Amino acid sequence: MSEKGQRLIWFWGKECPHCKQLRPTVEKLEAEMGIKLDHLEVWHNQENQKIMQEYGDVISDACGGELGVPAFYNERTGKAICGYKISLEKMRSWAEGK
Amino acid sequence: MAKMMWRCSVCGDIHYGNKPPEICPTCGAADAFVLTDFDEAMKIIGRRTGPLDSKEKVVASWKDFAERNGAILLTESDEEIDMLCSGVLENLRNKGFRYCPCRIPSGNQLKDQALICPCNFMKQKNWGELGECWCGLFRKKEGRS
Ligand code: SF4
């Protein structure tokens, strides 16, 4: 896990169909960029839910009102993206902080 | 306006809303609703309906909901229905409500009411843009806007 404040976080849910669908794109990004996102499971893990709630305002804005998964939060830029229709390009821009 | 509870003075139907229904949806009586309160209403309703706490019952309620609504379809994937239903039931056990499995309740019950499944997905951005609810449990019927 990267140091707090520097993390690229993927919030996902264990039984979430859309997270399952998006996983290959996440893995592609990790392979391409040679990085590893912090995968934080939030359907079951209360601690991870708390982390998500810390960034609640930004993430819920990106999700259209509430905290949803799959969601991505970049601690370096404070930017979030949300939903399962995220392209590899969009994910890369988010990770690179563009 | 705060919602209140209303009782049909003819058949005992209970309605919770801003104003009483003009026609009772159960017995058809006109202008029969009168103000009631929580204690009286709960005694009238009793525990007859039983809890919606099993996969069979929850999925049946989703199917029934989709069948009655001409604009929506329940996803055809049994695997997705199964996964989402497990999430909903886990929320019921841990958080007391059948909350949406793909979204995280804030802890503010009034606000989180909007996350009880099925939610108001037809009013959400995803429905307009992608034609499905946030988790993909319900989607728009072809040819409907
Ligand atoms: S988004 Fe779909 S699964 Fe989630 S609460 Fe709404 S209807 Fe249920």
What report would you give on this structure?
- The complex is a heterodimer of chains A (98) and B (145).
- By secondary structure, chain A is an alpha+beta fold.
- Helices cover 43% and strands 19% of the residues of chain A.
- The longest helix of chain A is centred in the first third of the chain and has 17 residues, at 17-33.
- The mean pLDDT of chain A is 91.
- With 145 residues, chain B is an alpha+beta fold.
- Chain B contains five helices and six strands; from the N terminus they run E-E-E-H-H-E-H-E-H-H-E.
- In chain B, a hairpin with a 5-residue loop joins strand 1 and strand 2 (14-17).
- The chains are: A alpha+beta (98), B alpha+beta (145).
- The structure holds iron/sulfur cluster (SF4).
- Iron/sulfur cluster binds at residues 84, 100, 102, 117-119, 121, 133-135, 137-138 of chain B.
The CATH topology name of the largest domain in chain B reads: Ferredoxin Thioredoxin Reductase
Tally of separate domains of chain B: 2
Mean pLDDT score of chain A, rounded? 91
Low-confidence stretches of chain A: none
Q: Can you identify the CATH superfamily of the largest domain in chain B?
A: Ferredoxin thioredoxin reductase catalytic beta subunit
Quaternary organisation:
heterodimer
Count the strands of chain B? 6
Major sheet: arrangement of strands of chain B: 2-1-3
Supply the number of helical segments of chain B: 5
Question: Could you name the CATH topology of chain A?
Answer: Glutaredoxin
**Over the alpha carbons, how many angstroms does the gyration radius of chain A reach?**
12 Å
Sum up the overall morphology of chain B in one term: globular
Query: Mind summarizing the main beta sheet of chain A?
Result: 4 strands, mixed
Helix % of chain A is: 40-55%
Strand order of the largest sheet of chain A: 2-1-4-5
